[in-house]
From TrEMBL:
Annotated organism of origin: viral metagenome
Keywords: Membrane, Transmembrane, Transmembrane helix
Transmembrane region(s): 12-31, 38-58, 64-81, 93-113
Protein name according to UniProt: Uncharacterized protein
Length: 142
């Protein structure tokens, strides 16, 4: 059974973390270099490689192509640009704090505000994509 791509520009909270990492990378390249985003990028890339392997079996080909393209832009390219930087313990601590903040954010959305989409990606047969994937899909496939 192939998953269905939901045609919506709404990005559910469980997909927002990749864009938080991208914002972290942009701030880093703009000169806010107190913490290096390389650790988060590597963890995110490992997660996305596992997700890609799963998608190879259950997702439509067009989604796989877009997924590879988007992750090359938001994960692989920044990792390449940061390849000569060192990951320090403070970067790992900051990354863990950012992830815990994200988990708190989606938990508050789910439990306090009743946003049932906060953990949407964990139990669905449809694929709700992030805004970049949505617009690339609209541009090339619609």
């Amino acid at each position: 059974m192939k998953l269905q791509l939901i045609d919506s520009s709404y990005t559910p909270p469980n997909l927002v973390f990749s864009y938080w990492i991208l914002a972290f990378v942009m701030f880093y390249f703009l000169g806010f270099k107190k913490y290096n985003p390389l650790f988060l990028l590597i963890i995110g890339l490992i997660h996305n490689i596992i997700l890609l392997i799963i998608y190879l079996f259950i997702a439509p080909v067009k989604l796989i192509i877009i997924f590879i393209f988007v992750n090359t832009i938001i994960k692989v390219l920044p990792i390449y640009l940061l390849r000569n930087t060192m990951i320090q313990m403070k970067d790992i601590y900051f990354s863990l704090c950012l992830f815990l903040f994200f988990l708190s954010y989606i938990s508050i959305l789910y439990f306090v505000f009743g946003n049932k989409n906060a953990y949407h990606g964990l139990y669905t047969k449809n694929i709700q994509v992030g805004f970049l994937t949505y617009w690339i899909n609209k541009l090339f496939y619609k």
